């Protein structure tokens, strides 16, 4: 049976996911077989495994850092918010149904056997399991029947590292207050405190650390700096999604991604963000849009509601105006559905009823109760005209969507970009294109094709701006950087002792 260590935080955004990924990479570098585990994740960024099962992308990132294949065993429960008070509940990679927050709170204890079975299967395969909590263990209104923080630590007999975020201020109050609100048995599980996201001279913290250790009787095992490694973040707290369009990373090419209220899988843009020539910015208002070189409509957990927001905010009119002037528009999944002529929801899966689409692509989407979750790979079709540069490019990705889209590929102006058997996965018309394939830009061939097309329109080449490494190589370099920074700031002897001793 594997050894275990658990990372909990004083709040959402304290850095649990990044610390878990970094610890996974350190243990891998030290020759151990290691896997991440998060019993319940709430996120709109998800991933489809080789078996066609859905899991949170945070655990995929951690699995990549650990050098192992992602598995739904690492994230047995995924909650995908559909409204402010409800979520789609996914158990072991398959949709269980939609529940309100109150319904799920009453139901979740029934999932304990599923969680424990998933964990046991992982523990049989690995030397160490690094478990991530969610939010804070001191949410006293949610502690009853907890399955993700101290309740899970008790079930797994896991020692805990508690991390606080000094960047948002009040880290000593965070750590002390969290420990103080816990029951004595829960507090005893915390074997080390971590001050995370520190900027400045560590010696200034020493008096506070000494007092914190005295009051909590728990050692501080690390002061972790604000690590600059470019690692995917949890979607709800991603800094890149909060950035004003004026402050976003600038590059020679200006790529505007529409920041939908229910944006999902914005990680599709990560390969573009990693390229020096691409200035990717997230736009949530018509004034921010301006005249970019490319507009991307990303995925959405509720396509119809987000299209209604796009219309009311004035962004739809601005995008259509840009498209009319020749600016390319590219949609992925929900964004692709929005670009069609009509959306229908006879079963009330989303907003219900029917809705006019943006009219950029000649297609119609009907939402049913079944969900498509599958991996896909292949080559794009031979294209002509505006998107000719995408012809014959290899891709590998996955589909996650409700709704079937019907198009008319026999129309003269429509070109099929990708297909899987008889199913059309993407089409083009003029300067508009869209696809159901998440991860479409992960392929160097595909991202090169898009960027080369945009660069050529500006009279430059990618070689002229020093474009280099592919995305997989880039990600590996960031995992190594994360591990190096974390190894230097954590007392790894203490961490290994905690892992070895357990409770």
Automatic annotation (TrEMBL):
It holds the Pfam family CbiA. Residues 254-445 form the CobB/CobQ-like glutamine amidotransferase domain. Residues 5-232 form the CobQ/CobB/MinD/ParA nucleotide binding domain. The keyword Transferase does not apply. The keyword Protease does not apply. The active site is at residues 333, 438. This is Cobyric acid synthase. It comes from Faecalicatena fissicatena.
């Amino acid at each position: 049976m594997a050894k275990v260590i658990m990372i909990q935080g004083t709040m959402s955004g304290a850095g649990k996911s990044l610390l878990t990924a970094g610890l996974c990479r350190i243990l891998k570098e030290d020759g151990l077989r290691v896997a991440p585990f998060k019993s319940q994740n709430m996120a709109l960024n998800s991933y489809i495994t080789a078996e066609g099962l859905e899991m949170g992308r945070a655990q995929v990132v951690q699995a990549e850092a650990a050098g192992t294949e992602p598995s739904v065993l690492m994230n047995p429960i995924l909650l995908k918010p559909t409204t402010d008070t409800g979520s789609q509940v996914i158990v072991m990679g398959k949709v269980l149904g939609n529940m309100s927050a109150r319904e799920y709170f009453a139901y979740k204890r029934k999932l304990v056997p599923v969680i424990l079975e998933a964990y046991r299967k992982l523990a049989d395969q690995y030397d160490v399991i690094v478990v991530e909590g969610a939010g804070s263990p001191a949410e006293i209104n949610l502690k009853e029947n907890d399955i993700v923080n101290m309740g899970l630590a008790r079930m797994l007999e896991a020692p805990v590292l508690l991390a606080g975020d000094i960047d948002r201020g009040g880290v000593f109050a965070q750590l002390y207050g969290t420990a103080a609100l816990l029951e004595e048995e829960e507090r005893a599980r915390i074997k080390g405190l971590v001050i995370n996201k520190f900027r400045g001279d560590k010696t200034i913290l020493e008096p506070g650390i000494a007092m914190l250790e005295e009051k909590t009787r728990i050692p501080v095992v690390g002061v972790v700096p604000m690590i600059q490694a470019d690692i995917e973040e949890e979607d709800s707290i991603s800094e890149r999604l909060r950035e004003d369009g004026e402050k976003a990373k600038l590059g020679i090419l200006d790529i505007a991604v529409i920041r939908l209220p229910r944006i999902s899988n914005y990680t599709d843009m990560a390969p573009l963000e990693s390229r020096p020539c691409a200035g990717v910015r997230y736009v949530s208002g018509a004034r921010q849009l301006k005249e970019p070189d490319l507009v991307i409509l990303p995925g959405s957990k509720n396509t119809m509601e987000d299209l209604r927001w796009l219309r009311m905010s004035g962004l739809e009119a601005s995008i259509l105006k840009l498209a009319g002037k020749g600016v390319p528009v590219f949609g992925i999944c929900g964004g692709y559905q929005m670009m069609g002529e009509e959306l229908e929801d006879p079963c009330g899966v989303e907003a219900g009823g029917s809705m006019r689409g943006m009219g950029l692509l000649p297609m119609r989407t009907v939402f049913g109760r079944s969900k498509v979750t599958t991996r896909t790979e292949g080559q794009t079709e031979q294209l002509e005209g505006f998107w000719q540069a995408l012809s014959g490019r290899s891709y590998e990705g996955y589909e996650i969507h409700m709704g079937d889209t019907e198009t008319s590929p026999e129309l003269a102006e429509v070109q099929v970009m990708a297909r899987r058997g008889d199913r059309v996965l993407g089409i083009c018309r003029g300067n508009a294109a869209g696809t159901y394939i998440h991860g479409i830009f992960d392929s160097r061939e595909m991202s090169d094709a898009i960027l080369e097309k945009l660069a050529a329109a500006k009279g430059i080449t990618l070689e002229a701006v020093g474009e280099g490494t592919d995305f997989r190589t880039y990600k590996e370099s960031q995992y190594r950087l994360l591990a190096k920074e974390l190894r230097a700031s954590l007392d790894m002897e203490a961490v290994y002792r905690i892992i070895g001793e357990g409770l």
